[in-house]
Amino acid sequence: MEYSFNKHELILNLEKSEFLYKDGYGPGVPIFTHKGIKVIDNFIELFERELKEKKIKYSKLVHKHMISLDDFRKAYNKINNYENEVIRTGNTCVMSDALLQNVFYLKKIAFVENYVKTVFSVNSIYREKTGKLIPLYRDKNIFPVVQIDHLVHKSKLNKTIVLLKDLYLNFYKKLGIEIKFLKASEVPEYASFELYFLAQEKSKFTKLGMIYVLYSQFRQNLKLSDEYYLINSGFSGKSLFYSIESASNYMGELFIPTSSVHIINKIAKSDKLNKVIKIFNEEKISFYIDEYEKNTYKKWKKSGDFALLVLHEKYTLHIKTMNMPVTFNNINTMIKCLIDNFYKVSTELLNYSRSNIQQNLETSTLQLCENCITYSYYGLIETENTMTCLNCGKVINYLIFNIDPKDRFY
Ligand SMILES: [Zn+2]
Question: Which domain holds residue 236?
Answer without folding.
Answer: 7-250
